[in-house]
Amino acid sequence: MTGSRAVIVYNPLKVSDRPRLVRRAAELCREAGWQEPEWLATTAEDHGAGVTARAIAEGAGLVCALGGDGTVREVAGALARTGIPLGVLGLGTGNLLARNLGLPHNDFDASLRAVLRGSVRTIDLGRVRFDDGPEYCFTVIIGMGMDAELMAGAEPRLKARLGWPAYLLGSARALAQRGFGARVVVDGRRPVTGRSRMILVCNCGLLPGGIDLVPEARIDDGRLDMMTFSPRGVAGWAAATLRAVTLHRRGHRIIRHSHCRTGLVTTTFPVPAEVDGDPVGSATTMRIRVDQGALLVRA
Description:
There is one protein chain. This protein is α+β, with helices and mostly antiparallel strands. The protein has two domains: 6-118, Rossmann fold; 126-293, Tumour Suppressor Smad4. Helices cover 28% and strands 35% of the residues. The chain has nine helices and 14 strands. It has helices at residues 18-31, 49-57, 69-79, 96-100, 108-117, 146-153, 156-162, 171-176, 233-245; strands at 6-10, 38-41, 62-67, 86-90, 120-130, 135-138, 141-145, 180-186, 192-196, 198-202, 224-229, 255-260, 262-275, 278-298. The strands form two sheets. Strands 5, 6, 7, 8, 9, 10, 11, 12, 13 and 14 form a ten-stranded antiparallel β-sheet that branches. The protein has a four-stranded parallel β-sheet with strand order 2-1-3-4, with helices on both faces. Strand 8 (180-186) and strand 9 (192-196) form a beta hairpin. Helix 1 runs parallel beside helix 5 (108-117) and helix 2 packs across helix 3. It is elongated, with a radius of gyration of 19 Å. Keywords: ATP-binding, Kinase, Lipid biosynthesis, Lipid metabolism, Nucleotide-binding, Phospholipid biosynthesis, Phospholipid metabolism, Transferase. InterPro entries: ATP-NAD_kinase_N, Diacylglycerol_kinase_cat_dom, Lipid_Phosphate_FormReg, NAD/diacylglycerol_kinase_sf, YegS/DAGK_C. GO terms for molecular function: ATP binding; kinase activity. This is Diacylglycerol kinase.
């Protein structure tokens, strides 16, 4: 890759001491045989997709996302099926894609060095549409129900100070919320109906805290993994959590797990939803599909 040009798309709200990072990025790129990278900032109006499109048009050989999971998702969506690889420089609370790719996170030098010296691999993306809204891409996980309630309830200042444990502070309130009726169709098969508290769809399954929600999930296996959680009360959630983290979840009423390429979830009333940890409002329908081999990454 000698002489190739990299672009770093960064979220100014996540980046402190930018002059130092610019200096270090130039040094690391020179050491690895790359040109000095160009830096493009996201804005309140453009969370990364627009500036990534500009980088593509100007001939970038690599686009790195520096920020949280939202920035990574926006850049990944814009790079999908362009043949230009993504580099993940995670500086967020969850750093979900970096974790699942085995990349460093919250360490700029280590992250950029790993990307520049890594090899290119192909991974899947997920695609989701809530109600009649736009179709989002997702790199790791989406959900409806309790997980989205936890994401929406986390205070930004606590997230910045505590990291992912900040989400747990709102868990008591989320546990008290009522469940919802759901009709789930996987790959066009016979619908399954029931009462749920949370429905997750994973492209890969490694979460903060070392929890591997779907150990058999692979980010390049051409399928998604849908999990429907139906516990009752605090005791039910305790049992569901134990079963999830100890892998005893298949064939039990608390957690239903299905591999799929497409899926449709319909709920009895609007339910909070999230995409890669970012709340996106409430919806009554969730349509998902796998976009197999859509993205190149350097890792």
